[in-house]
Amino acid sequence: FAGKKMSKSLKNFVTVREYWARQEERGSGSPGDDFRLWCLGLSGRYRGSATFSFESLEEALNIRTQIVQFLMDAEEILTKGKDDKSHNCVWSQHDLQLFQSILNARRNCHEALLNDLDGATFLKQLLQIIKITKPHLRTSINAAHTILPNITAIVRELLSVVGFTDATVHAGRRQRHLLSSLNDNDGNTNATKNAIDELVSFRSRVRRHGLRNKDESLLELCDDVRAATAAKGVEIQDIGGGGGGGGSSEDTSTTTTTPSWRFCVPKQTPPLSAVSSSKRRQSPSPPLRPETVSFMEYFQVGVYEGQFKEFDDETGLPV
User: Fold this and answer.
1) Looking at the predicted structure, is the pLDDT value of residue 110 above 60?
2) What pTM, to 2 d.p., does this model score?
3) Given this model, what pLDDT does residue 92 score?
4) How far lies 244's CA from each of 49, 112, 227, 264, in Å?
5) Does the N terminus or the C terminus of the chain have fewer Cβ atoms within 10 A?
6) pLDDT per residue over 115-144, tens digit each?
7) Between these two residues, 266 and 116, which has the higher pLDDT value?
């Protein structure tokens, strides 16, 4: 850790409590599974030494989020296709070819574990399954009736084999149950859907008003709402325009559209209005006049300030 062997005497170690609190601050739903993924595929072979860093743990969180979001998206597609009898349930030639690739990757995962627990190769093949499946989900209208149930079963099986908890292995199933209840018009869950729809619709109207009148404060509040709902596992999707605070061009007509949102992995992001407010409080530095700066200091001030750490003693150039 930090270039030295972990030692109590050197005080260069991280406690479980410190690690857990840090991962939760970053929106991790399962810090334990983040660490499992790091041990499995990012820490090197288990017979050698492992270099711990918070950057590699951040990578582990991002990779696990990618896996969890794939399972959640797949379950949403399965739910929507559950009662749809109009599509053909016969596998296409593309389905067969894709599934053969999935089976090959699954076999590679098992062989990697048998090869002295080669976790890096296992993780690479698992992510390959997700990578080659995603485009098929967007293009195949029969995915929910043909190949998708088999692929999600394989992904969950592989995650279970290497010891991930239910938070990762069964990701999306809770949301699928809720979505099924929403579609079945269950009283309590339907009220939840209506409340989310109303919130997203109201935000959409406020956002259109802000864009039309170029009201930055309203747009920042809209971004705050989106960040807050994402932290709770509901992703609001702005159709046809960029971020709120950026003032991107968008159709600002009063035509109403169906609110667009989906369940997602909870994401912890700082409110944009807080960032913008802090920027507004900072008074801009007056521009430097080139004739007042010596060449030895040129790369240490102005737009270059803080960009470089070391400089040549003779020329002042950053090294």
Assistant:
1) yes
2) 0.60
3) 78
4) 46, 46, 11, 20
5) C
6) 999 999 999 999 999 999 988 776 665 665
7) 116
Q: Is the pLDDT of residue 225 over 70?
A: yes
Two tokens, residue 24? 């939760």
Instruction: Write out the chain in H/E/C secondary structure.
Output: CCCCCCCCCCCCCCCHHHHHHHHHHCCCCCHHHHHHHHHHHHCCCCCCCCCCCHHHHHHHHHHHHHHHHHHHHHHHHHHHHCCCCCCCCCCCHHHHHHHHHHHHHHHHHHHHHHCCCCHHHHHHHHHHHHHHHHHHHHHCCCHHHCCHHHHHHHHHHHHHHCCCCHHHHCCCHHHHHHHHHHHCCCHHHHHHHHHHHHHHHHHHHHHHHHHHHCCHHHHHHHHHHHHHHHHCCEEECCCCCCCCCCCCCCCCCCCCCCCCEEECCCCCCCCHHHHHHHHHHCCCCCCCCHHHCCHHHHHHCHHHCCCCCCECCCCCCEC
